[in-house]
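Practice problem: predict the structure.
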Amino acid sequence: MNSHLGPSPDRINRMHARITERTTAERTIPKPAVAPAQGRVLSPRRPLVWGVAAALAVTGLVAADVVFTPGQQGVEARAAQVLERAAEAAILSTDLVVGPGQFLKIVQEGFNYQRPSDIVTDEGHWIQGSKSVFYIPADRGGDWMIVRTELPPTDFHGGPEARADAEGRYQRMTEPGSVTHGVFTATLGGGVYPAPSAADFSGYSRDPDALYRYFDESVEGSGSHEQAMWVGVNDLVREPAVPADLRAALFRVLARIPGVEVQETGVEIAGQAGVAFSRVDAGSGGKSREELIVDPANGRVIGSRDVLLEDMPLLYAPAGTVLFSSVTTTSVIDHLPDPATFPNID
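Answer:
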């Protein structure tokens, strides 16, 4: 594809995969060094995000200062300092307490730009949104309830081919039996969405040095090795129910990746203010900026987004357009909703 057409099909597909989570080809989450006895994932045909990296020793959290990489200076050094503060905030914060009979409710909402299937001859775009809600019992060994909703496409630009393609895709994604539109029960090791146990996170070291080596040796894909590490760490730190100590260690890994910058003021996503850590991948043309947005008060991830850095005429999208956005909120509830109310479940 010509370079002036914007992000490659591979990149567009990876952004879409973050919302629909139906494909693994474009994701760069590191694979466990040793496969667990039974893989557990939260979505079908997805890389093993929750797997136990058995080759990594499980250690206590290392509350050490950031070790700057050689040549790290200026904006990168500032980003590392702010990431260290986020790590310290995560250490001091406590995960939400879920009492007996209660449920941890995690809501992930987002959208991304979609283009027609034939990107050579068909111009235009539309916005495709989706919502995933996880209801996690206090006893992680119990059944989870997962509600996934594909939202109708909106904001059409371009010819009739774009609208027809969008409506056709939406119909296929919401037909009976779809794994991205419906109410699902997750159990440990079974079902369409096998639920993870606490052990699935314990295999990741909390020592930033060991965790950095793990990602450095395991990631693949993307336009550069540094970008593959950025994507791999981001995909893990944004996972539902990641414990605070692991989140702190992941922030310290991000602080060592070259090219990471920070915006400390004027950052807002879905009405929530935060600090944005970002990276532009020169290896993929540098046409968009990927952002991870964190609440500096407690080190929790608010969301993430991709922002276009130059005009993309084929998509009718000017520079500054948000190509992908995802926001996460958490709360504790006393009762599960009625599955019969789908797709209007609160």
